[in-house]
Amino acid sequence: MEDASITSIFAVQAAGAAARRVSFDRAARIAALETLRQTVLRYRPQIVAAMAEDFGKPAAEVELSEILPVVQEIAHAKRHLRRWMRPRRVRPTLAMLGTVGRVRPEPRGTCLIIAPWNYPFTLALGPLASALAAGNAVIVKPSELAPASSAVIAAILREAFSPDQVAVVEGGVDVAQELLAQPFDHIFFTGSPEVGKIVMAAAAKTLASVTLELGGKSPTIVGPGANIAKAARSIAWGKFCNTGQTCIAPDHVFVHRSVADAFAEALRKAISKYYGAAPKASADYGRVVNARHFGRLKGLLDEAVARGARVLQGGEVDEATKYIAPTILTDTTEAMGVSQEELFGPILPLIVYDEIDAVIARINAGPKPLTLYVFERDRAFAEDVIARTSAGSVAVNLTLVQFLHENLPFGGIGNSGLGAAHGHAGFLAFSHLKPVLRDRFSVLPILFPPYTGFVRRVIRVLTKVVG
Predict the structure, then answer these.
(1) Active site annotation includes 247
(2) Which of 62, 327, 375, 402 could be bridged to 231 by S-S, CB 3.0 to 4.6 A?
(3) Residues 297 and 288 sit within 8 Å (Cβ to Cβ)
(4) pLDDT at 467
């Protein structure tokens, strides 16, 4: 798309910002959300087909991880929008007696959503639901790395909305750069920390606010008192769902030595149960998105094995179909690429530990992860890990499903992200909380100049009282 076209789309949306603050009221927002819901549901067959074309994602997994979260986000916003939009009264401080203060949510204005390829529908249309609930106009840029999904997203949004409300722009890096040159009021980006830094730098030029949903190496801890069978099932599903191409997938597992052998065997059984003896033939197991990502993952696997890592399960690859089997590695070292890079694929290193202090020290030595997983029946063990580490979120005895909890904010910290999404947190991300203060019988005018002896005494007394 030409630069002028992007500029004109942005200009039309920005020009309507003042009118939208009045006309895009709760009824209009609910209508927009309902239109989005109905259109998404009409396009279910096309969404499933697009995901199969882009990277072989099973139909049931598309329903579970792409369509359900969007429909749920919309329903939750519609249900709670009246309360979210209501101005919230705040209590006056001593110095503010005689005034009435309220916090009034208002739309930020014109927003940009840059979505990734790994969950192209959820991570484009989920934030869009939040942006519409907050009363904004939006330009959505799907990922060019999932071209079939991008085309379906474009079809959905062009059918559901006029471009002055929601526009979609397809394309690659050049298009993203053109979009980032526009003075958006808010940018919501999901992707890698490296690209997140570029987005944040671009936003700084116009002082746009940002929400950055990034990634990192989300660690998993299996404690000595864990329910081994349950932990293995949950970790296997969380890791190999979407072929491991999930920002909150367990990246590596620290497993206590006393249960390491039992856990490894339970993990092998879980993989076999989910995908059969030959995952390549399973209708429930997908493929890596493209040749570049396949090559990166194969390179990491080959390097690890060459440097002494042992393949406990899987390891088979097929470049022609971009297939990498669900793979478990042991005997990895911190010098290997699998220990340094976010894997974002179906390779799971198991790291045996003896003392939890060493695990916590290793986690704290790296960038703060998007998610930390802990499997342990002893609540004190889990609470100790939670208290002594920092992560965007923590899940205990489960994986991935914290993303679906609409009453929990979802977001990273530090290298794994900035800001939060989902439910009320998503509404707030796309809102400006405008303070409004009204005077009723404030006594502050008696403190105005001239600063007589009486006024100075009153100021001193007031300072003493409020302090």
Answers:
(1) yes
(2) 375
(3) yes
(4) 79
> Across residues 126-144, what is the average pLDDT?
98
Which entry of 66, 247, 376, 406 is annotated as an active-site residue?
247
Is 330 exposed, middle or buried, given 0-12, 13-18 or 19+ CB atoms closer than 10 A? middle
Q: What is the pLDDT of residues 178-235, one digit of tens each?
A: 999 999 999 999 999 999 999 999 999 999 999 999 999 999 999 999 999 999 999 9
pLDDT at residue 466, as a whole number: 85
The catalytic position among 66, 178, 213, 406 is 213
2 confidence band (pLDDT: 50, 70, 90): very low
Confidence (pTM): 0.95
| pLDDT tier, 62 (very low <50, low <70, confident <90, very high otherwise) | very high
Q: Locate tokens 């808010």: which residue?
A: 186
pLDDT of residue 3: 44
Task: Kindly report, residue by residue over 350-395, the tens digit of the pLDDT.
Answer: 999 999 999 999 999 999 999 999 999 999 999 999 999 999 999 9
